[in-house]
Amino acid sequence: MSSLIQLCLLLVTGLFSSATLAIPQQSLVPGGIAIIALDSTAGEPAFSFRDKPVLISRHNDQTVAIVGLSLSLKPGEYFISGHYGDKKQLVKKFFTVNDKEYSTQRITIKDKRKVNPIQQDMERIIPEQKRKKIAGSFYSQETADLEFLNPVEGVISGSYGRRRVFNGQAKRPHSGMDIAAPKGLPIVSPAAGTVIESGDFFFSGNLLYIHHGQGLITLYAHLDEIKVQIGDRVQKGQQIGTVGATGRVTGPHLHWSVGLNGSWVDPALFIKQPSTELN
Ligand SMILES: [Zn+2]
After folding, report:
1. Which residues make beta-bridge pairs with 121?
2. Among the listed residues 168, 167, 190, the one whose alpha carbon sits nearest the alpha carbon of residue 177
């Protein structure tokens, strides 16, 4: 195919095929990522999706918007809107989100309070949820490195998006990837970033949030030890903690989430070679 035809196709669809970009992969489903070509010759782009600023990146001289698609999105047509420096010249870029059926996982938790918290637990959970919400929608302007390292070597024991039934009760779907690994194994930051939240949380155990730039956030839960503090600048590959079994767990593993524009998306779209998957 001539490059001119390719360019025309690109302009028609406004979307990249996942082959064009190695990382992250595009996946136009709830919980996936839309990668939308922008005008590379225009001014400085600023686009948002559902009132949240989206990450803008350059790949091979092409400017793209990398848009996180929330798991709760209904299939259908959506758009990002923005401008190239002139707020009066509003631009809309449309894309289609397709349906995806995620499987169901049944989990038995021995500590029943971790499934049905008592009033005393709720007094702890409610402020923790507020902190998580703030951390999950953090945004600042610095450029993000999208070429992630795997945070830990292990086996994927729970994939993103699964509907989950704890002790027979339907709970929220899985907002990240579970990687089973022995307790104490080092966890590294997949890219440079800043620690924006950390603490011992009721469900998540020892929990850590890293902002990598422009709303790209990674979250690490159930850690045994946290090796960094809020406000720390971390380098790509730097150890940030160790695998543990704190919070609501059945065994030692890392729960890893990746967020874009305030939505948790499938972390598998960010890693080159997902470890072998169980079940
Ligand atoms: Zn998990």
Report:
1. none
2. 190
CA of 25 to the centre of ligand 1 (A): 21
Domains within the chain, CATH numbers bracketed: 3-97 (2.60.40.1590), 104-270 (2.70.70.10)
State pLDDT tens for residues 49-78.
999 999 999 887 899 999 999 999 999 999
Alpha-carbon Rg for the chain, nearest whole angstrom, is 19
Report how far ligand 1's centroid is from the alpha carbon of 192 (Å): 23
Distance CA 191, CA 142 (A): 13
Task: Phi first, then psi: give them for residue 86, nearest 5 degrees.
Answer: -110, 105
Element (H, E) at 134: helix 119-136
> Rounded distance, CA 224 to CA 207, Å?
10
Pairwise CA distance, residues 144 & 23, whole Å: 13
For residue 260, how far is the Cα from the chain centroid? 6
H/E stretch holding 3: helix 3-13
Provide the whole-model pTM: 0.88
CA 117 / ligand 1 centre spacing (Å): 18
pLDDT digits (tens, 9 = 90+) for 166-193: 898 888 899 999 999 999 999 999 999 9
